[in-house]
Amino acid sequence: MLLFVYGTLKTGGKYHFYLEEASLKAEQAVAAGSLYDTGFGYPAMSLEGTDQIHGEVYEIPEVLWPALDFLEDCTGDEVTDLYEKSVIPVEVNGEVLEATVYLAKDKSLLKTKISSGIWEIAYV
């Protein structure tokens, strides 16, 4: 299954090591939505908006999903989860792929909009 990453899981990000067993499928990918700085050292994405969110796409082995869900606070708990998984269209070199993405479930994470759609590694 494909995963679109736009923040700390990207190459050079503080949690990129979680993807050591994953295969990079696209260094440059774009999804529609809005990107926010949460103020906690990581970003959050919302599908509300029409900005271009820039990220990477990875093929994730099944064995990695539980660790990624834990990292992203996406455990299936409707009350406490900060993020939720969704499958969205992602453009890679003119081709549209379907990829899973972690989206902000807790709207209080959507603090400062990043209009460029790029989470700079320097933010962390």
Please give a handful of descriptors for the protein shown.
1 helix, mainly beta, 124 residues, two-stranded antiparallel ribbon, four-stranded antiparallel β-sheet, globular
Q: TL;DR of this structure?
A:
This protein is mostly beta strands.
Descriptive notes:
The protein is mainly beta. The protein contains one helix and six strands. It has one helix at residues 65-71; strands spanning 2-5, 23-37, 43-59, 83-92, 95-104, 112-113. A hairpin with a 5-residue loop joins β2 (23-37) and β3 (43-59). The model has no long low-confidence stretch (mean pLDDT 95).
Q: Provide the β-strand percentage band.
A: over 45%
Order of helices and strands: EEEHEEE
By DSSP (H or I, 4+ residues per run), the number of helices equals 1
Q: Say how many strands there are.
A: 6
**Strand order in the largest sheet:** 1-3-2-6
- Tell me which oligomeric state these chains represent: single chain
> Uncertain spans, ≥5 residues at pLDDT below 50?
none
Give the class from helix and strand content and strand pairing: mainly beta
Distance between the termini: 27 Å
Helix content: under 10%
* Biggest sheet record: 4 strands, antiparallel
Mean pLDDT: 95
Determine Rg (CA atoms, Å). Answer: 13 Å
Indicate the overall shape.
globular
